[in-house]
Design goal:
The complex is a heterodimer of chains A (about 290) and B (about 300). By secondary structure, chain A is mainly α. Chain A is built from 13 helices and no strands. Chain A folds into two domains: about 10-55; about 70-285, MetI-like (MetI-like fold, Orthogonal Bundle), CATH 1.10.3720.10. Chain B contains 13 helices and two strands, in the order H-H-E-E-H-H-H-H-H-H-H-H-H-H-H. Chain B has a two-stranded antiparallel sheet with strand order 1-2. Classes of the chains: A mainly alpha (about 290), B mainly alpha (about 300). At the A-B interface, helix 1, helix 3, helix 4, helix 5 and helix 6 of A face helix 1, helix 2, helix 4, helix 5 and helix 6 of B.
């Protein structure tokens, strides 16, 4: 499939003349302005003091410059814990899932696990079911085993929920690796463990980076499982902390809540901006664009 | 999606296993050691709970006393429950709207942006909302839809329209939330369609232009028909996603006022984790799963058909 990064040539059929070309540009610009407006308007409101926010229209230009105080409030009122928790969950969860999924795909494809397709489908079937199917038994089991509202419990779950999609992608990748490489390594006396770490894993760098990004974003953005499996500020992920903050301070200190929302959105937004190319490739590769 | 069902060439597989060094026993056990951790995680945290949910849906279970077998009671009661029926209706509205709006807009945006100067920049802007969480979108739009001084009402005031209660009245709050959802999910559809547009064969387009077919005629008669496979995939994907929306509703209305804007996912959460009707809640989960399975089947089938054509 052609990359999205080369748009010019393919679009030529649309704009025959110079007038029409500019017409398209104007239309695209209007769309973009319209689409970005909500974020811009709310960003401006993050500069206001709570009082100013209540007294003026949201469309009014901010008269005060209270952004740093608002960020400070947001950070102190519970965002800090959630932010750091989710950073841990996102990194450990995505890396853990990618490694375990790579092991599984390596075993199935490269080591010729008997009935490999069955094992693959067993793992991949984790993507089919809607999340609602897991919630109640997970909640009960977490309570019984004592990992409810613990970092360990959150990490274990986030690793698991990311494994099926990662296995799917890594399996697709390992199918494309030439067999001669593996055989040559065995002739040289390497075992499967060294072949995995020294040959396969480095070769798979591109899909591994891509998967880690997608899974980090997913974990970071998760609300539902955070709501169900955690409650205390020391454990709950960032989106749960954010939503809790809106419930408590949404009315009296809106600018802080808006600032908090922007802070929480920054990591995934920056990831996308810096690594757009990988994300776009992910779209063509997974279509689902996510887990 | 890369071919899901391709199997590895058998001739190569034998050659490869023969070369695996070490004892024969180790060679046979080894692949399992790599696959087991992932499989154990998935079975323990996903598949086993899934089975338990199915079993629980056939029990009376309040989360405290011992569950008792209930047969199809939960499912029958669901369809006698006005809250569930309302939730089902909302889910239906959500699914339809979440398909029609983002897919149509996504296609229109893709056609507008494709080939325009600085298109990479415009693409990023439209896709931007898709990179932030549904919860954050919910919070942002709660302010946009604010009653007293929210941006939307302030804008409408300029045109002499009185304040609208965007989020506090049913059914308008459902439409407001769908608006926020559309803002977020149009970008993904646009990206899909841009991939499609770039892959279109140029010959029929050139031929049509030679015959004097340009502008909207060209788009309507030539481009759209060729884009149909992508429209089908985007539509089914949108159904699967729109059907399961939870985060945004939970953040913006919590299914309220009362329980008027709940969808199935929200009703399931409320019954299971706020009212602790676990058996009843599990039955809703099973209904969601059944619907999702049907949608996913058609989705996967059309994706695989598409793969074959390419």
């Amino acid at each position: 499939m052609t990359s999205l990064a080369a748009p010019a040539a393919a679009g030529d059929w649309q704009q025959p003349g110079i007038v029409r070309r500019n017409l398209g540009l104007v239309a695209a610009a209007i769309l973009a302005i319209f689409w970005i407006a909500p974020i811009v308007i709310l960003s401006l409101n993050a500069f206001k003091t709570p009082n100013e926010f209540l007294m003026t229209s949201n469309l009014a230009w901010p008269a005060s410059f209270n952004i740093f105080a608002n960020i400070q409030h947001a950070w102190a009122k519970g965002l800090s814990g959630g932010f750091i928790n989710s950073l841990i969950y996102g990194i450990v969860g995505s890396v853990g899932a990618v490694i375990l999924a790579s092991f599984a795909a390596y075993g199935i494809v490269r080591l010729k696990l008997p009935q490999g397709l069955f094992w693959f489908l067993l793992i991949y079937s984790g993507t089919i079911w809607p999340f609602q199917m897991y919630l109640i038994p997970l909640f009960n089991a977490y309570l019984q085993t004592g990992i409810y509202d613990s970092k360990l419990g959150m990490i274990l779950f986030y690793i698991t929920i990311c494994i099926p999609f990662c296995t799917f992608v890594m399996r697709g990748f390992f199918l494309t690796v030439p067999w001669e490489i593996q055989e040559a390594a065995y002739v040289d006396g390497a075992n499967s463990w060294t072949v995995f770490w020294k040959i396969m894993f480095p070769m798979a760098r591109a899909p591994i980076i891509l998967l880690s990004l997608i899974q980090f974003t997913w974990i970071w953005n998760d609300l539902l499982f955070g709501l169900v499996l955690s409650k205390s500020p020391g454990v709950r992920p960032v989106m749960v902390a954010l939503v809790g903050m809106q419930g408590v301070y949404g009315a009296q200190d809106a600018p802080s809540v808006i600032a908090a929302t922007l802070i929480c959105s920054a990591p995934t937004l920056l990831l996308f901006l810096f690594l757009q190319r990988y994300f776009v490739r992910g779209l063509t590769l997974g279509v689902s664009g996510g887990r | 999606m890369p071919a899901v069902a391709t199997t590895t060439p058998q001739s190569l597989s034998r050659a490869a296993t023969a070369k695996v060094p070490g004892t024969r026993l180790m060679g046979r056990v080894e692949p399992y050691l790599y696959v087991l951790p992932a499989a154990v995680f998935v079975v323990a945290f996903l598949l086993y709970p899934m089975v338990l949910t199915v079993i629980r849906s056939f029990t009376h279970d309040d989360g405290i006393t011992t569950p008792t077998f209930a047969g199809f009671d939960n499912f029958i009661n669901l369809f006698l429950d006005p809250h569930f029926i309302a939730s089902l209706q909302n889910t239906f509205i959500w699914t339809i709207a979440a398909v029609v709006l983002p897919v149509t807009l996504g296609l229109a945006f893709a056609i507008t942006i494709n080939g325009v100067r600085w298109s990479t920049f415009f693409k990023s802007v439209i896709y931007l909302p898709a990179t932030i969480s549904a919860a954050a979108v919910g919070i942002l739009f709660s302010f946009i839809f604010g009653y007293d001084n929210g941006a939307l009402n302030s804008l409408l005031n300029i045109f002499g329209v009185h304040n609208v209660r965007w989020l506090f009245e049913s059914p308008i709050n459902t439409y407001s939330m769908i608006g926020a959802y559309t803002w977020q999910s149009t970008g993904l559809n646009m990206m899909l369609f841009l991939v499609g547009l770039q892959g279109l064969p140029q010959e029929p387009i050139e031929a049509a232009k030679l015959d004097g077919c340009t502008g909207f005629g060209l788009i309507w008669r030539i481009i759209l028909p060729m884009m149909m496979p992508y429209v089908v995939i985007a539509t089914l994907l949108a159904v699967v996603n729109g059907f399961k929306v939870f985060d945004q509703i939970w953040v913006m209305t919590q299914g309220g006022p009362g329980r008027s804007s709940e969808t199935l996912a929200v009703t399931m959460y409320r019954e299971g984790f706020i009212m602790f009707n676990q058996g009843y809640s599990a039955a809703i989960a099973v209904i969601i799963a059944l619907a999702a399975l049907i949608f996913s089947y058609f989705y996967l089938r059309s994706v695989l058909d598409q793969e074959k054509q390419i």
